[in-house]
Amino acid sequence: MIVERAFSYEEGFRRLVERGRRARNHFTEANLRLVVSMARKYPAGGLSMDAIQEGNLGLMHAVEKFDHRQGTRFSTYAVWWIRQAMSRYSASQRSLVRLPERMVSEKNRTGRVREQLWQDLGREPTRKEVAEASGMEVERLDLIDLATRPAVQLDMPRGEDNKKTLADITPDPSQGTEEEVCAAEISDLLLGALATLPEREQRVLILRFGLLDDREWTLAEVGKELGVSRERVRQIEMNALKRLRHPSLGLSR
């Protein structure tokens, strides 16, 4: 009975995560045309791919920050973040990397550390090993990796005829008010619920359900990352999912 109940908790949470992930991706893709439209009007002239990449960062930030309870349409809200990101790019006067210098330096350093550890260990190093060798917390390493992931390439040919680009085939952002509210509510539920958990339980669920990089870690992988047994990870996950079933968190539906 306990095992069946735990399985039910996990499946319910997993479905919620998947709904949130699909809504987030749909949300972003549905508004890519907005970024392209603004880039075309950019003072630099022409369709600047640098401006588009900066606009994409602003769009992704808008997706994370949007609060449907304010009564504003997402496309209206996103314009501000996209324009701010493009303006920051213009002021930075940098053509290749537009991240904080400290983060760029840390990214380069962790890259060198990864390569050295790979040579020394004869295998891919774990996040924990890279973080320790780099003199930082694992959470900081995750943030650096997340912030420096490749930007979406809108100018690459796509589709069966290999002629259309992503900019040509992205949907019009003027639709989807119901989807906006649904996605925002799911995001609110997930973030609010995870914030109530102890740090270790948060990390286990983030890794097990792929909330950081869309890759679901196995019990063994998480155990190795945290320095505990596979069974201990399973117990932590089960306890965390039980906590999330509390009616006050809104995940028990």
Automatic annotation (TrEMBL):
Domain RNA polymerase sigma-70: residue ranges: 218-244
Annotated family: Belongs to the sigma-70 factor family.
Region (Disordered): 156-176
NCBIfam families, sorted: sigma70-ECF
Taxonomic lineage: Eukaryota, Metazoa, Porifera, Demospongiae, Heteroscleromorpha
Superkingdom of this protein's organism: Eukaryota
Full protein name: RNA polymerase sigma factor SigA
GO MF assignments: DNA binding; sigma factor activity
Any one GO biological process: DNA-templated transcription initiation
Biased composition (Basic and acidic residues): 157-166
PROSITE patterns: SIGMA70_2
DNA-binding found in the keyword field: yes
Keywords on record: DNA-binding, Sigma factor, Transcription, Transcription regulation
